[in-house]
Structures are given as C-alpha cells and as structure tokens.
Amino acid sequence: IQTHWLPTNSYLDTMISLNFYPDSELLALGLKQLVDSLSWESFLILYQNRGGLVRLKQIIRHKNVMIERIQDDLPITLKTAINYKITNIIIDGDVEILVEVFKKAAELDMVSADYNYFLTNFDSHTLKLPDYECNITTVSIFDPYEQTFRDLVKFWERNERRNRLTIDPMLIKTETVLMHDAMSLLIESVNSLKENVLFNRLTCDDNRFETGPDIVANMKDNFMNFPITGQSEFDPLGKRTNFTLFLFNNRNKMIASWNSKDTQNGVILKSDTEELMRNLQRSTLIVVTSLQRPYVMLKPNHEDLIGNQRFEGYCVDLIKKVAKIANFTYQIHLVGINRQIIDTVSAKHADLGIGDLTVTPEREEMVDFSLPFMRLGITVIYRKLDVEDSTWKFLDPITKDVWMYMGTLTIVLAIVLYFVSRMAPGDWENPHPCDQSPRVLKNIWNIKNCLWLTSGSIMNQGCDILPKGISSRLVTSMWWFFALIVTQSYIASLAAFLTNKKSLVIKEVEDLGRQNKIVYGTVENSATYNFFQSSNNTIYQKMFESMTTTVGVLQQDVRTGFQDVLDTVDGSYAFLTESTTIEYEVERNCKFRMVKNPILRRTFGIAMPRNYPYRSLINDAILHLEEDGELMKMKDYWWKQRKENRPCTEQEPGPELTIEQLRGVFLILACGCIGALILGFLEFLYSVYNVSVENHISYLEALKIEGLFALKIWVSQKRNKQLNNKNSGSKTSIINNKSTNSLDSNNKWG
C-alpha cells in the first residue's frame, strides 16, 4: 500500500501494490483544468524539484508562462515576477518551502491584494500564515471542512482520551487521511475474503504472501464505508484513477471541484452548481427503464397503484435517493429493452435512463453516463445436474487407481508385516505366561492376523492384537499414518459426493470455448454480445462464432436465457450475462451455479443525453451515496435480504482424490516399510549373534540355522534358546540342540 506521489514510469507490471495517491497523469490534467478555471492570462511557476515539473507539465504548455526553480537565491527569483509585472504565481513545493516563499514575498511586498497564489501541495491547508491580503488558492484531495472528516477526528480524540489528546483537523496531513482510507479498505477486503480464502501462517523469512494477490484484487472491487478521499478505483498497475480535487480560497471556502471520472465537464464552480440546483428543483425529469429483476420490478399490487408507486427494485430505490439528494421530481416510464432505453435517451425523449445499463464505448457515443453505481463483469450461469442414485456412488470421492493401490497395499503390507514379525525377536512370545521358563516361543502373526490388522486399520476399526517388535511396530505405525490421511480425506469428500453429481467443470468463462459438450449463448445485440463480437482474443472469437452459428442459443432478453438454463435438465446449456444479474438468480434458485471469476470488469451507470446540464449534480448524488455506503446496503437488501426461499446449503462436490494428491502419503508409507524391513533384518542379525555366542557356535553356522528356520513360514513356534543354553554346555549338546531345533521345526505345536 502506497500513499505518496509516484511518476507513471515508476509502476511495474510485476508490482502487487495499490497507490492511494492520485495517478500523476490524471493529477496533472486536474491541476491544469483547475488553473484554467481561474482565467489567468499569464503566471509564474515556482517548483522545488523535477517531480514538480511532472505534476505541472500540462500547465507548462500555457503560452504565457515563466518557470523558475526555487533555490537559495529566493529573493532574486521572486523579483522576476516584479520585473515582468506578473501577479499570478503557482508554487509546487514542500510545506516548509511554502512558508519560506511567503516570508520572502512579504519582505518584497508581494502579498498585497494584487497578487494571486496557487499552491499545489495537498498539505497547504496545514499552513499557519498571517492574514495576508493576497488571494491564496489551495488544492486538496479531501474536504477538511466536511462533516465525515470532522467526525473521524472526534473518533480519534475519543480513542486518545486517556492521553488528553486534542487534534486540530486543519493540521492533519493528506498522507494520514490516505492511510486511513487504505487501512479501512484493507480491513473490509480481508473480512470479506476470510470465509473463502485460507490464510496460511507466515514467518519473518517469507518473501511472498501467497494470499496477497487475492487481497489486492478484492480491494480493487470493494467499496469503503465513509471514505474521506472518496471511493478508490485502480487500473491494472495499481494507479488510482478515481479522485476529486477541491479548490479552496484563503477564507477556507470551497470555490470549485474537479473529478477524474468527469473530465469532460471539467471544473465545477460552486456558483454554477448552486444555479443548476435551483433550475433542477423546478424540473420534473422523465426516467425511462425496462422490467428486469431486481433492478426494476412491478409490485404485486401494482394494478391498484399509480405513478412511481407501481415500481420497486434496486434502480427504483437508487433514483429515489438521487432525487432526494439533488432535490428534483421524476416520472418513471417503461420501454422495451435496454437498447430502447439508450435510443429514447439519445433522442432526448427522456432525461434519464436506469436499469442494468452497462457502460460501453458504443453506448457512450450515443449518450453520457453518470459515475458508476455498480461494478460487475461477464460470467456464466449453468444448471446443477439433478442427483442420480447409484449403488456405487460411495466410490466417487476417490479415483479408481487409488482404490486399486489401497487394496493392493493392504495385502502387500500384511505380507511385509508377516516377514518382519518373523524376524523381530520381540514378536516371539511365551505362549504360557505362568511358565517362567517355557520350552518354546510362539509367533501369533500368521497371514490371517496380519490381514486382519491391515484391513481393520484402513477402516478405522483397529485390531485386538498388536505387534511388539520394534520393526513390526514401525511398519504398523506407518500403515496407521497412511490410513489416517486416506480415510479422513475420503470422509471429508464423501458427503458432497452423496448429494451432488459432477458435471463438466466450468471454472472460468474461457472453459466454455475449450469444450464442445455444452452450448452457450447470450442476449442478442446486448453489451455482452458486442464484447464477444469485437474481441481480439482467440478464445472469445471462437465463442462468438459458436454462439452465432448454433441455432437457438441467442436470446431476446435475460429472462428467457435463465429459463432455458433451467429447462435443460442435463446441464447442456449455459448463459452469459452480467455477473450481478446472475448473482441475484443464484441466490434464489439452488439449481443454478455460476462461475465466480468474471471477465471484462465493467460498470452500470445512469444514461442521460449528451452534454446534459445536470450531469454533475447526478454524479455528486451518486458519490454521496457511495461514500455513505448506501449503494452496498441497497445491493445487499435486494440481492440477499429480499429472498422468499431459504439459502442453499448444498456444497459443491470436491474434486476426486488422485494419486498425485496422495503421492506424499504413499511415499511415507513406502519409506516406513523399507525402514521396518531394514530394522527387522538388523534385529535378526543381532539375534543370530546372540545365538552364536550363547551356544558357542560360529556366527555363520548360527545364521544358517536361524535363516533356514525363518524361511519355514508354516512354523509358528520354536524352542527357547535361553532354556537350551541352561540345559547344555558342550559341543555335543549344541549339535543335539541343532538337531532338535531342526526336528522341532517339522512338527506343529499346539
């Protein structure tokens, strides 16, 4: 987040940032038009650094202008104005420089009523200058005398009550106000994202915040409640493109304003605005619209009502609030479709046109539009397929290859456990615990028990017998870890798959152009239709060709398009239109689904004839509603609160668990099994060493005897070597023991 001036060439495509300070190009244009409104024939420009020349580059093109840099020889620079009899001076510099300039100007008697100064620094209102007779005009990006700003200052004072802090509103710098707006927008954006975005834990060593781009994108689309510098709009590079410049005289009175979104009308003088308002109060404006939910609708009892009372909807409330602020009366008249609204307003048969009117270059050639009252994009609506009962639907959350691997692993792990437990000394147990010196040891881990353990674990049921050897416990614990991850992932996805059937995945609008199973269309000759028609994007061109060559996909109105989507039970038809209109339908019909990432960011505006005299008043009213949060409240009311049905609680089915997603779990299991086999083999070799020492035979001979015995997988008992050691101590007895062990291995012990 940035809050200071930057030249245009400082912005990079790779930057993920937003600068709340006005864009330098638009700021230069605004300063130029403000200076033009003063009707100065000639003037002197004093600038502090090269940045000042960039800010004043539009003004410098004036034919009667002198330019001087503010340096140490300030009195000599000011005498230039005296020598050339220039009384209009523009100063671009820091507040400290401004104080020094006026101090030297007073010494040269350049603060009389004959002189006019124009200060470009946004913090000029913080200057505490003597009561000079000269005219000092200052520029600001906010109105320090506006009630919202004064209320904010009181709020800050209440928070600092313990410190008994008193804040002078006229000393608050612009960067502080911009940072307040930036933090307010950031908080609102994060709060709106936290339900849909997972915020991972960060460390001080992280170079990149993964959720950063999502937050920045949401900040661009979000509205602030009660912003001090107005609602912020940004271009793709993060430059602020929506702001208002206020012009004040040295009597703290606002004399003019300029808005970056209304550069055609230029500077709006306060006196002109007051005259327009008096004329507007005596007028009754004709407002044309068309029926489209939820923008304009007829009330259920409209036949019993007359005039404007027959209508309700978002745009009806909007024009009502605009009329209240601008203080005019109006009459609503219905026409056919949006195209007819534009034609009627363009022909000056109506004053205003309201509805879901997208601002497009084609329409702007016919009519003027107000500032946007809603931001939107183009997206897709399609039908959720009806649920079909299936005997094997419980298998859907996991792909077939994963099921196959899991079944194979259950058997393989049972075999691995069987061999590991035979090698592990800890799994050869005393079958009679009361006998402290048993003749034989028994191993309970046959293939049946090993399969019982592995299959019970994967189904979260456990087993009534457990291994005791270190290596066998290792392989079992790895299997338990594998079973925990797989079963919990399966359970998390099962509920969605039991109530939903997956259709073709449409995650983006472009996905429609990459498939041929779903046909799609839009309203013919609409703004959406014109976008695809004029697009240079290959996929969009392909989509337009498909829509124009496929019979029956282009509609006459939005209502018909939604009905066609609903009628195609198999989900084979999708409809493209404005995202806000689709959001309204999705909120009310659980059979609808929409693509949540719209393309082509556009806006809705109020249409009016070209060069309409009351455009600035309409814009001021919309700005007022936007800054007070009324536009968002109205949208929330008509889209979410005015619902007859209960909200849809069904969730979209999650993606199938694939082998790629579970690759890590399989890898851990494999490493655990290999480790267990190695550990079991080492345990076996150590056990052989003990046998060779205790029975006084060579290690290789003991390894041969124990190895041959381990390979006899049908034997589950063996003699206790410790008991043998007690009963024999000679070479002969050892040989006899070997013979006995070999003989015992051929018997089945009960």
From TrEMBL:
Residues 724-750 are annotated as: Disordered. SMART domains: Lig_chan-Glu_bd (SM00918), PBPe (SM00079). InterPro entries: ANF_lig-bd_rcpt, Glu/Gly-bd, Iono_Glu_rcpt_met, Ionotropic_Glu_rcpt, Iontro_rcpt_C, Peripla_BP_I. One of its GO terms (molecular function) is signaling receptor activity. It holds the Pfam family Lig_chan-Glu_bd. Its main location: membrane. Residues 294-343 form the Ionotropic glutamate receptor L-glutamate and glycine-binding domain. SUPFAM superfamilies: Periplasmic binding protein-like I (SSF53822), Periplasmic binding protein-like II (SSF53850). This is IR2. It comes from Hycleus cichorii.
